[in-house]
Write a structure and sequence with these properties.
alpha/beta; elongated; disordered N terminus
Length: 946
């Protein structure tokens, strides 16, 4: 036994110097560890155990350097690292603050997160189910602190109970002191079965842990650690995954007592190994020498890679970056820890380039088969978002079995070259755009013998003429421009003298149709040959626009003319209606006083007839000028046409045949219209037709549903396109002269002789139809008759049926304040009201009337006032009267005012509104109704039904 021990001592003494030279580090690497089971901890025998120590021991075996574990607390480990008392710390998370004083490896060792554990049978499935429950956490534990932040962010309220250790948390859960417990997952998954608890699916706040060294030291040590971790993680059966499964809960590790006989056997084996080792040391020395040379070459290679002005990149088959040189980091603007281990698709490759190409798919193709993409150019993206173009030279890396394990790439920045190429393309595209895509088109011509031949032309020229490009190249110009001269005429002489010529010619399409063209021609010289360069513009749209503009100008002129006449008509209507009111009122009063045998009654009836004709004439003037208020109500136009037919049949000579045609379905269609005015339109059109046919022929009235497109409505009106009812009147007369069609709607224009008409008929039609939001169209040919079409928009509004009350001529005894600036009207009203028993007080001055009312507002039962009066208008007088007495009934009268309408007076609470001239029975009936309504509703201030 002594001999054996002696031999062991001799061998150890011989080989100890050799062992001291192993590895890259002459001294052991000092590693700070602290109790963080099962990541790293001190066992009861004082040994360092856990995932980190096992991984470091495996690395030591392969690298040939040694380690020395320095136990302590977490805080002591950080202090010792900065004091240079240790070289490496374990189990540390990366933060920006720590990165200022430490260097970290890039491959995370493991990720840790908090997890909630429960008793078997618990119904808690998600974190919101913990509301109101007792939850145990470990004092000052990061997982417990993260749990508190998580439930605070979600608004979950729990009763938190703190314990000093993770074991105490599980024990409290087991003893039913709490409903749930929170621990780090690595502890809970290893020990939950010991306490009879179960893990839940509630996990939160993961973070990764790394190795770290002091800033600027042991960079190669971290690189070696990353190489081992990367290789291990690529193999699911590696030592890393075996120890991870063992320490993180996959297996239960047990301390085993090794028998003495095993130690004896191990001693024999060790002695044998030492003997064999002695025999092989010479070989190992040679291997070590070769390894040193290899590492020297690797360092030279690294220096070369780091110093070149190209991007050098190595990625695995998943696109994760394994290496990038210093130039590449600076070029893309990343730090090493920001890019190593990350995918190129998440860092330097955008989803699409500026042209919309899917670059990420291209890179995926490269990773699948690098040999097919040995040289590629693509867009890349820097950290700051800048787009750059890189030309990549790719080479596949293979393992011993010939499988692709990664791609080695060298990249050169070609952004400037791409920019210059883009500028050149843009200039070329700009020229091509000018030639191909401008509104005008281009022709390049050359004189060949006696013909001008087309040698080039733009796409727009082909499209406009209806030819393919091949059909026109080499063809004579006269194919598309029959007017062009093929000889050496005076125009070509001027062109050869350097002049630019402009002309308008007719071109011909392939289908034979022609269109006007403005051509600007100039002679050019290219490579010593002379050509004629012609820029030509299609004038079709321009001519159409000019025609539309002309039609629109005519329409505007008609509009302004009608507005001017309307303004004049409004002024005339006011005074004329006042005059007619005086004539009608006094004539009616005088006629009632005569006996039936008195012969003057006939004369008075003639005066009434003339006054009513004057009223009708004023209504016509207001109608064509659209100054007359309309009562538009939904009505069945077919019924109105049938009702009007009988009226027309009675007034039209028997020598004229009258017929109506109502299209199927039109008898149920409605329009918004004033029935009286539409009848007036039909009467005027039919009377004109009778005159045009000289009382012999056929008049056809038709009703049909049509669709009007925008192009038919644009010039004539600004109405919306859609469904309309068309009422047409067609005659078999001599037609209308073309030069007269534009004038037929002018007021007072007529071709009739003096005494045969006023010229207001068609002007009234035009005004009424426009007031109904419709349009009038005229079709006429000399010798073939005329057709007038009235188009009115359809409506779906329901029809209201109104029933008028009838009653005897009323009387009364109430006191009425009557105001009108026409003295003759006040005299008539005073006499009329007194005859019927009323007590009128009449004024021609509205201010005097107001002053009288102010003295005693209760002295009057009604106010009747004219609208247009000096100083105070009728509406202003009513407003001031209503301020003194809001319940007094009011009647407003007007010869004509653009400021008054039926809708407006209803809004103002005026009981009744009259247009002058009015008949005396109408006025008396309205007075009686207003007084009776007011008596029944003493506090109601609103218009009453008529």
């Amino acid at each position: 036994m002594r001999i054996y021990l002696f031999l062991i001592l001799i061998i150890a003494s011989v080989f100890t110097p050799l062992w001291a030279q192993r590895g890259e580090y002459e001294k052991p690497v000092r590693v700070g560890v602290f109790s963080f089971e099962p990541i790293n901890f001190i066992d009861p025998q004082g040994g360092v155990q856990g995932l980190y120590p096992d991984l470091l021991r495996s690395m030591v075996e392969e690298e040939g350097w040694s380690i020395e574990f320095v136990p302590g607390t977490w805080a002591q480990g950080l202090e010792r690292l900065q004091a240079n008392e240790i070289d490496l710390v374990t189990t540390i998370a990366h933060t920006p603050e720590r990165a200022k004083v430490m260097d970290f490896n890039h491959e995370a060792v493991v990720s840790i997160w908090g997890q909630v554990f429960l008793r078997p049978g618990s119904k808690v499935e998600k974190i919101l189910d913990l509301e109101g429950l007792k939850v145990a956490i470990t004092e000052r534990d990061i997982s417990g602190q993260n749990f508190l932040k998580t439930i605070a962010g979600l608004g979950v309220n729990c009763e938190i109970i703190r314990y000093p250790r993770h074991d105490d948390v599980f024990l409290a859960l087991k003893n039913k002191e709490v409903d749930a417990g929170v621990t780090p997952n690595y502890f809970g998954l290893r020990h939950f079965s010991e306490y009879g608890v179960v893990p839940s699916s509630i996990q939160f706040s993961p973070f990764s842990i790394y190795f770290a060294t002091r800033k600027g030291q042991f960079a190669h040590l971290l690189e070696h650690i990353d190489e081992h971790l990367s290789a291990w993680k690529a193999d699911k059966n590696s030592y890393y995954y075996q120890r991870l499964n063992y320490w993180m809960g996959g297996e239960n590790f047990e301390k085993k007592i090794i028998p003495l006989w095993i130690w004896v056997c191990l001693g024999v084996v060790a002695l044998t190994a030492l003997v064999l080792f002695f025999a092989s040391m010479a070989f190992k020395v040679q291997v070590r020498k070769a390894t040193a040379e290899r590492r020297s070459r690797e360092r030279d290679y690294r220096r070369l890679v780091q110093s070149v002005n190209n991007i050098i990149l190595r990625v695995d088959t998943q696109g994760k970056i394994q290496f990038i040189n210093r130039y590449g980091l600076e070029f893309f603007g990343f730090d090493k820890h920001e890019i190593i281990g990350k995918s190129v698709l998440e860092t330097i490759i955008p989803e699409q380039d500026v042209d919309g190409r899917d670059i990420q798919q291209v890179i995926k193709d490269v990773l699948c088969d690098p040999d097919d993409f040995e040289n590629i150019e693509n867009e890349n993206i820097c950290k700051d978002g800048q787009r750059v173009y890189i030309q990549w030279c790719n080479q596949a890396e293979y393992d011993e079995e010939g499988n692709i394990v990664g791609v080695f790439s060298v990249g050169a920045d070609i952004s400037e070259r791409k920019r210059v190429e883009a500028e050149l393309r843009a200039k070329e595209e700009k020229f091509r755009t000018l030639f191909e895509h401008v509104t005008d088109y281009a022709l390049v011509l050359q004189q060949q013998d006696t013909e001008l031949v087309i040698v080039d032309l733009s796409k727009s020229a082909c499209r406009l003429h209806g030819y393919q490009r091949e059909e026109l190249l080499g063809q004579p110009l006269r194919l598309i421009s029959p007017q062009s001269s093929s000889g050496d005429d005076s125009r070509q002489v001027l062109l050869r003298a350097g002049q630019t010529l402009k002309s308008v010619v007719m071109h011909q399409r392939k289908d034979g149709s022609t269109f006007p063209v403005e051509a600007v021609v100039r002679q050019i010289e290219v490579d010593g040959e002379l050509y004629f360069f012609s820029i030509e513009r299609d004038l079709t749209e321009q001519e159409r626009a000019e025609n539309e503009r002309s039609e629109l100008e005519k329409s505007l002129q008609q509009k302004y003319k009608m507005e001017a006449i309307g303004t004049l008509a409004g002024g005339i209507a006011h005074d004329f209606n006042n005059i007619l009111a005086i004539i009608l009122g006094n004539t009616q009063m005088l006629k009632r006083k005569l006996s039936e045998e008195d012969g003057n009654g006939v004369k008075l009836e003639r005066i009434l007839t003339a006054a009513n004709r004057g009223k009708h004439l004023v209504d016509q003037v207001l109608a064509f000028s659209r100054r007359q208020e309309q009562s538009l109500q939904p009505l069945l136009l077919a019924e109105l046409v049938i009702d009007t037919f009988d009226l027309l049949r009675a007034s039209i000579p028997r020598t004229v045949h009258l017929e109506t045609k109502v299209a199927p379905g039109c008898d149920e269609l409605k329009v918004r219209a004033d029935a009286t005015q539409i009848q007036q339109v039909l009467l005027n059109l039919c009377n004109n037709a009778v005159f045009a046919m000289q009382e012999k022929g056929t008049i056809t009235i038709e009703l049909e549903k049509i669709d009007l497109p925008v192009d038919e409505l644009f010039v004539a009106s600004q109405l919306a396109a859609g469904e309309y009812l068309q009422l047409s009147v067609t005659d078999t007369g001599g037609g209308i002269r073309a030069e007269n069609i534009e004038k037929i709607f002018d007021p007072f224009y007529t071709t009739k002789e003096i005494g045969q008409g006023t010229g207001l008929g068609l002007a009234v039609v035009h005004g009424i139809v426009q007031g109904h939001q419709g349009v009038v169209r005229v079709h006429s040919q000399r010798g073939e008759g005329s057709r007038f079409e009235i188009c009115l928009p359809l409506t779906h509004a329901p029809i209201r049926h109104l029933v008028e009350d009838a009653g005897p001529l009323p009387t009364g005894s109430e006191r009425i304040l009557f105001v009108d600036d026409e003295e003759d009207i006040t005299l008539w009203a005073d006499e009329l009201l007194k005859q019927q028993g009323f007590n009128p007080v009449c004024y021609t001055d509205s201010e005097d009337a107001l002053e009288r009312f102010q003295k005693d507002p209760q002295a009057f039962d009604m106010l009747i006032t004219d609208q247009s009066m000096p100083i105070l208008s009728g509406q202003e007088l009513i407003a001031k009267v209503r301020e003194l007495r809001s319940d007094i009934p009011v009647i407003l009268c007007s010869g004509f005012s653009s400021l008054v309408s039926t809708a407006l007076v209803e809004q103002q609470g005026i009981n009744k509104f009259f247009h002058k001239p009015y008949r005396e029975e109408e006025l008396l009936l309205a007075i009686r109704k207003c007084l009776d309504f007011s008596a029944e509703n003493p506090h109601l201030d609103q218009p009453q039904p008529s």
